[in-house]
């Protein structure tokens, strides 16, 4: 008997630990999303929009690559490499269909601190000025890109380590107001860094605490050194860019292809500068020599990793948070799902692999991602097509960019940051929804301006957690109950064969950023459960749940729930009497629940809502104004359902399935 047990145990052990072919295939498809979508790629429907989007994206990648490389204090050509390799790696490992990875202003600013600290500008005169290095660049330029590559490498290693530790889901502590404030503050920093090019001034590198204010102090102290030609060209470029982009936005439905004003401006400005010799005549700073080709890969210098660990953590956290927000927005907009941890792996590998090809740190950018939205991109094929055109620039067109004025390039960058800068408009929304989050937004923005993006991000997260910790004890002294889910069916008078299915869910916990995502997941699980269609009319099933703070599996619920039969109309009543307090994330999730249920033909009614909750939800979301959704009590909500028998009858007639005639 003992031998039989041992044999059975060994068989179970071998079955548990021997990987099956299906397990390996599933693991590969989970870790290599390209294997999931590439075989099903529809050439007929998707290739044309992806090609158009790829061409437009390539223009953005080239201009931003050149500018963000300068922002990172390295030679512009390395920005072109940073627009190529990360996009390829992310297309293989990333899950965001509309996420455009490449050079990023925030990570460039952070890596510039390490570059300027380890290889300062005054070392240029001390290093050998020979052009026998890689691509004919000086030793000084190669030392600088090696520092930036080291930051990229170590930042990628940190991101992969976070993936191994499954820390991707921990980003729920980074709320939307914190991300909005941090990115807006960082965009303000980028605009400030471009002021010297917009004004044509020579300015030393200024960074550190309050460096933002020191830059403007330097500008006003040396206002007489502003070059009028550069200022006028910058103003003209900004006016043209803003005007044409607004016209493109206004008439994008009437015209199939928008005008690539960035590309037109680059060609026109370069040609004008070449013909008039602006570099020598007016002293305008130009991009300069762009080497052709891609150098052989080389490992980043490992001996300086300890010196750049602070910047590497900033690149890893800020880059990932900003990229994940764009990926989640893309998934929400186009109705697909992403894995937070897989995004960590994708961006980590993008930074690690790219660092061997002299690339600056990378991440997804809002302007490029929005460009993919507006041009109708379907998949990551658009990013791969853009890589082809970036390669053409690297091998053929790059040298022609020598005459591109830096003030024009700076103007393109400033206008490209419009999407981040207009997030100031969110302040009104936060003030009406949750004034505490309005205060967090303002304080996070101030800290980002005064110090750096990573410091502002850390401050915002700490403030958010501290406020919730302060709120929870006050809420828990009132009533701590698990969610009571009650489902019952009411026979409607309009049709004796039609059933009205109503689910009442009473939630007796606060709804804040800590549990908002869990609340949404568990509520959707309840709605999607299979329900036996032959239950008695007066059947009432009850189960105890704690949607907000505990796992759904802790409940004693059967497999019954509210996914209705084809001949049933569903309604969901949320009893909000237990919402002792909520925050911006909670309101956002409630509105998302309402919109998702509406898309599933499930009516959502909210009972026992406070005036502040009604005001916040009404202001935040475009709720259905024709149907009342807020009620004083659960009985009032049920009475409203009964009083709309005619509308339910009409909906039933529209959704009824055709019957099969008897044989």
From TrEMBL:
Transmembrane segments annotated in the record for this chain: 66-93, 147-165, 203-220, 226-244, 304-326, 346-367, 379-397, 403-424, 436-469
GO BP terms in the entry: gastric acid secretion; gluconate transmembrane transport; iodide transport; nitrate transmembrane transport; thyroid hormone generation
InterPro entries noted in UniProt: SLC26A/SulP_dom (IPR011547), SLC26A/SulP_fam (IPR001902), STAS_dom (IPR002645), STAS_dom_sf (IPR036513)
Topology of the protein relative to the lipid bilayer: Multi-pass membrane protein
Main location: membrane
CDD domains for the chain: STAS_SulP_like_sulfate_transporter
KW Membrane (keyword) present: yes
One GO location term (cellular component): apical plasma membrane
Ranges for domain STAS: 492-641
Annotated compartments: Apical cell membrane; Basolateral cell membrane; Lateral cell membrane; Recycling endosome membrane
Keyword list, A-Z: Anion exchange, Cell membrane, Endosome, Ion transport, Membrane, Transmembrane, Transmembrane helix, Transport
One function term, GO molecular function aspect: sulfate transmembrane transporter activity
One Pfam match: Sulfate_transp
Catalytic activity: iodide(out) = iodide(in); nitrate(in) = nitrate(out); oxalate(in) = oxalate(out); chloride(in) = chloride(out)
The family this protein is said to belong to: Belongs to the SLC26A/SulP transporter (TC 2.A.53) family.
Official protein name in the record: Anion exchange transporter
């Amino acid at each position: 008997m003992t031998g039989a047990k041992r044999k059975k145990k060994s068989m179970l052990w071998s079955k548990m630990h021997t990987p099956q072919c299906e397990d390996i295939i599933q693991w590969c498809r989970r870790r290599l999303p390209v294997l999931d979508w590439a075989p099903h790629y529809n050439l007929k429907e998707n290739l044309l929009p992806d090609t158009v989007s790829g061409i437009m994206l390539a223009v953005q990648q080239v201009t931003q690559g050149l500018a963000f490389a300068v922002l990172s204090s390295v030679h512009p050509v390395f920005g072109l490499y940073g627009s190529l390799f990360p996009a390829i790696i992310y297309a293989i490992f990333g899950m965001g269909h509309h996420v455009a990875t490449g050079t990023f202003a925030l990570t460039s600013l952070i890596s510039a601190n390490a570059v300027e600290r380890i290889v300062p500008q005054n070392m240029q005169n001390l290093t050998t000025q020979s052009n026998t290095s890689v691509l004919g660049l000086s030793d000084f330029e190669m030392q600088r890109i090696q520092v930036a590559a080291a930051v990229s490498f170590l930042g990628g290693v940190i991101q992969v380590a976070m993936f191994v530790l499954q820390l991707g889901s921990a980003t729920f502590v980074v709320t939307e107001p914190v991300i909005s404030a941090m990115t807006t503050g960082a965009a303000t920093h980028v605009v400030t860094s471009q002021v010297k090019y917009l004004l044509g001034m020579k300015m030393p590198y200024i960074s550190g605490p309050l460096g933002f204010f020191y830059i403007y102090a330097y500008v006003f102290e040396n206002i007489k050194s502003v070059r009028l030609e550069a200022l006028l060209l910058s103003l003209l470029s900004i006016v043209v860019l803003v005007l044409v982009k607004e016209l493109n936005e206004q008439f994008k439905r009437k015209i199939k292809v928008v005008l690539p004003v960035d590309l037109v401006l680059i060609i026109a400005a370069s040609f004008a500068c070449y013909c008039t010799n602006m570099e020598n005549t007016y002293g305008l700073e130009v991009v300069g020599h762009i080497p052709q080709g891609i150098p052989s890969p080389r490992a980043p210098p490992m001996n300086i990793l300890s010196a750049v660990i602070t910047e590497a953590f900033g690149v890893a956290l800020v880059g990932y948070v900003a990229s994940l927000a764009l990926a989640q927005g893309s998934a929400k907009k186009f109705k697909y799902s992403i894995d937070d941890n897989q995004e960590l792996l994708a961006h980590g590998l993008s930074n690690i692999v790219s660092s061997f090809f002299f690339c600056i740190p990378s991440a997804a950018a809002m302007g490029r991602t929005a460009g993919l939205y507006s041009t109708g991109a379907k998949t990551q094929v658009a990013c791969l097509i853009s890589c082809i055109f970036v390669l053409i620039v690297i091998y053929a067109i790059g040298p022609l960019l020598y005459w591109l004025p830096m003030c024009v390039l700076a103007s393109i960058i400033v206008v490209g940051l419009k999407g981040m800068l207009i997030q100031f408009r969110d302040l009104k929304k936060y003030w009406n929804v949750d004034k505490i989050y309005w205060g967090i937004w303002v304080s996070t923005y101030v800290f980002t301006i005064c110090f750096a993006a990573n410091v502002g991000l850390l401050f915002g997260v700490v403030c958010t957690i501290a406020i919730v910790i302060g709120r929870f004890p006050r809420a828990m002294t009132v009533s701590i109950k698990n969610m009571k889910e009650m489902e019952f069916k009411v026979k409607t008078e309009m049709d004796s064969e039609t059933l009205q299915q109503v689910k009442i869910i009473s939630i007796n916990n606060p709804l804040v950023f800590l549990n908002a995502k869990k609340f949404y997941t568990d509520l959707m699980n309840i709605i999607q459960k299979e329900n036996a269609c032959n239950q008695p009319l007066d059947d009432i099933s009850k189960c105890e749940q704690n949607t907000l703070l505990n796992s759904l599996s802790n409940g004693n619920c059967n497999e019954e729930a509210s996914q209705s039969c084809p001949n049933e109309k569903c309604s969901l009543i949320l009893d909000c009497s237990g919402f002792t307090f909520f925050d911006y994330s909670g309101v956002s999730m409630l509105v998302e629940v309402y919109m998702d249920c509406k898309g599933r033909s499930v009516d959502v009614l909210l009972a026992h809502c406070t005036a502040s909750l009604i005001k916040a939800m009404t202001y935040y979301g475009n709720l259905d104004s024709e149907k009342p959704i807020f009620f004083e009590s659960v009985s009032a909500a049920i009475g409203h359902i009964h009083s709309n028998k005619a509308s339910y009858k009409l909906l039933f007639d529209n959704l009824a399935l055709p019957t099969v005639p008897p044989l």
